[in-house]
Structures are given as structure tokens and as C-alpha cells.
Amino acid sequence: MNTKRVVIINSRSIGPGHPTYIIAEMSGNHNQHYERAVEIIHAMHNAGADAVKLQTYTPDTMTMNCNREEFVIGGGTIWDGKTLYELYEEASTPWEWHPKLKKVANDLGMDLFSTPFDPTATDFLEEMDVPAYKIASFELVDIPLIKHVASKGKPIIMSTGMATKEEIADAVQAVNDAGNDQLVLLKCTSAYPALPSDANLNTMNDMRESFGVPVGLSDHTLGHSVPIAATVLGGCIIEKHFCLTRDEPGVDSAFSLEPHEFKEMVDIVRATEANPEKVVVDEAVLGDVVYRSTSETSCIPFRRSLFVVEDMRQGESFTEQNIRSIRPGNGLPPKHLPNIIGKKAAKDISRGTPLAEELITTD
Fold it and tell me: Cβ atoms within 10 A of the Cβ of 199, count?
């Protein structure tokens, strides 16, 4: 395959032979304070980031307000006992902030784009004329969403945490089917924070060869060894979560870099680019070619899947109004949605039920 492909974001060439594109992810680290978000963007600029990344969703586009056990968080986190809806209420970035934050970033000479989590978010971002889109690891299995994003013709950066090679192939095909060849795949370990020993960066080379696209890293470790090794291996993008201080509680602050840490990483990445042959790579982060590590198992249930979002009677037809692709991942994969629309419920179904094959008539 052609592995020399270059992706263009705002006239910036991203790919083999070009400087690493460094993305700072804000996520919910603004803690719902607009001025804090502005302060974070200025700190990102001072730390050397090329781009700011947001996340564009509301609680209702991410999940549903439901207290069934599927929607209640467990697993020993600070969110134990709360619902996914409550989490995304706190973590979301108000949509009215997005254009203003884009101007702040652009005035500083930085790109700003976002991760859309449903078609309405994608269309909103398209109206803002963002230069690129990000697909999160948890949404890689949402093929209808990927097709909608790809139809915009903009560059797509796609994280691959938790994904099997076959799932990545489906997502890449969805982008290609939309006539979009501007795709970068990011090696990602979906653990928060992640251990360097679980990075398995040799997977980057396999992705590059298998899919013929530029590759990079979305990293949730707190050190620099993984980004350095990714740079040596030819990673064209490094993405890291960014906060002003981990001492300030936030949904993502525990695995975000503080400004001085991010700047140190940027300086080391730039030095590595200049003289990669002089860099000693930590062999522990190279690992094997692994597309879904055991450390990611606990995150898989929080992927998207199909849920019944309105009470349904037996014989009632499935529509885009009564079934949706939302988190968590207890239902059928979202790629089945087009084939389910128009079929009928095999029995009465309560709102908040994960969609399963036995709930769909075979007539």
C-alpha cells in the first residue's frame, strides 16, 4: 500500500517527512467555566501545541437520561453510582462556546477542531468551518456516524483504542466509501491513565502498512517515553489531554498533562524529530502488534450501541426516533442501524432497553 500519503489541515502537511502535528485536548477540563477554557487555550499555545481539540456533544446526544443498570457507572471510579447522563452533563463543552473558542485559538495561530458524537454535532461544526474532524475510540464502531463525518470531505483523525483490526478496517472502508482519502489513524490505549508498558507502539507500523494511511498517537500516559518512541517510529500526530493543574478536580484531569509537562513533551518531540537516530527508545513501550489490549477490557462496555429510546409495542416499526446509537455498548453495534429501520418489534419493549436480535421480528 501507499504509505507516503499526506493529509492537509489548514495548509499544514501531516505525514512522513513533515513535522509532528501536536494536538492538545481540552475535554471537560474547563469545569464549565468559559474563562477557564480561554485560559487553557492560551496555556496550550504557550506550551507549543499546534491545535486545540474540543468534544462536541450534549448529554442527550451522547446517551439517554435513564437509571437502568446499563446506564449507571461502576468499576471503582469517582463516578460510581452516578449515571452516564450525569457524567456528560458535567463534562460537556457548551456549544455556544465553540465559535468563540475557535476565534481565540485562531488568533493565536492555532487550529481548533472537535470530536462530534452524532450527526447534529457534525453539522454544527461544519457550519463553523472547522478544518478537520476527530473520531473518538469509543465511536469507531459507529459506522453511520463515520460515514456522515466523512461526507463533509474534511480530514479525519481517528483513534483506535479497544478496536480489533477488523473493526478498524470497517471504519477505514466507511471513510473510503464516502470518497474521503484524508485519514490519519492514531494508536491509542483506552485506559485512563494508561501504562507505558501497555502502549504496544509496534502496532503503529502494522496500521501504516495495513491501511496505507499516516499514523500517530493518542496518548493517555503521564510521561514522555511513549510520545518520544512514537515520533521515532514516524508518528505524524501526537495528541495529549491538557489541564492547568491536576490538583483541580475534573473529569479528565487525572490523565492530563499540566502546561510545563506538555511544553517539555513538545520540546523533546521537536528534538527527536531533528535527530531521531540519537534517541534511545524505551523498548518497553514498543511491545507487540496488539489491536485490543487486556487493559482496555473495562472500557469496551462504554462504546456506542443501539438502544430503544421510546416505549414500543409489539409489531411497531423501528424508526430513527425510537432507536438510537448511544453509549453504553450493551446493544447491537451501530453499523446494523440501516438494516433495522423499518423492521418490527417482536414484543413490547421498554425505553432504555439495549436492542438485541431477539427483539426484532424476522418476517
Answer: 29
